[in-house]
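User: Hello! I'm new to structural biology and keep hearing that structure can be predicted from sequence alone. Could you demonstrate with Trypsin-like peptidase domain-containing protein? Please show me the input and the output so I can see what each looks like.

Assistant: Of course. The first part below is the input, the amino acid sequence of Trypsin-like peptidase domain-containing protein. The second part is the output, the predicted structure written as tokens.
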Amino acid sequence: MGKREFCAAALAAALLTGCAGGGDGNGTTATRAPSPVDASAAAVLEDAYTRIVAAVLPSVVQINTDQGEGSGVVYDGDGHIVTNAHVVAGARSLQVVPSSGGSPLNARLVGTFDAGDLAVVKVDGANLPPASFGDSTRLKVGQIVLAMGSPLGLSGSVTNGIVSATGRTVTSQREGAFPGATISDAVQTSAAINPGNSGGALVTLDGTVVGIPTLAAGTGSGDLAAGIGFAIPGDTVRTIAPQLISSGKVTSSGRAALNVTIAQTFSITTGKADGVAVVSAAEGGAAAAAGIRKGDVIVEVNGQATPTTTALAEILANLQVGQTVPVKVRREGKEQTFQVKLGELPGG
């Protein structure tokens, strides 16, 4: 093995020691051959990768629609497949292609939860092995993970990385028929996530799916930021998917809400976003019950400024249903604060 190859292996495995020995006094550098211990550690990791891929990849599918393509994960033995809502948004036709190949299988939409960017589709009469979803709350930063899916239409692709962080709150923007979503407790990973990976599987080395890759971070120029991707946590999937399978909708989102319809406001002097207008407040909802009404502009929730609708959504995503928080609004040029007992985000 050459020096460059050995360095790459050492970095990937994070188990091997340095790539080069000291100089020999003649201006040259000797390359240290891997010890039996190094080779053994690399072999163990390689074996783990191949075993997990063989076990889990058959449960990961490519989803093709008349709007585009993405990935999905088989959820149960009845042909239900979990994916991202943005993968199937606006689709009039759906087909599923197993990672092992074969003819496309016709699928139908069971239900979507746009606010959390999750959806379930179903294939009838196919023998697709379900994946095992694990406890994403037990993930640790630095833990090795594999991302499986169909990036750029390359079905059955696998990339590796680590859990870079947990508990992130991230927001996706409107995209075609998809209104955008705010995801709480997202898993950040360094595993490569490219267009087409959305809806696939983020898998630990014990073979359990702990997340659904959904977003890749972007740069100011619009390019994707390498090594910064986000996945919906597996625990959220285990909460939402059964509801979609049962009734085609989410009846208990577990997400805090003010129960208002909102719109972005802008300063007439600077042109910058300066609050979130209440277009309507649902009768008996959290905001209305506290005294907030149509025409109010929400400028702060729980001590955090809300200059944009995205900021408001991200703040609410980190609060709890039933929690009472101060909400500051601008009404007829004056600021007022209301104590609001938060309601639940509707699943429809």
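User: So the tokens describe the shape?

Assistant: Right, they're a compact way of writing down the 3D structure. Reading them back into a model, for example: The two ends are 57 Å apart (CA to CA).
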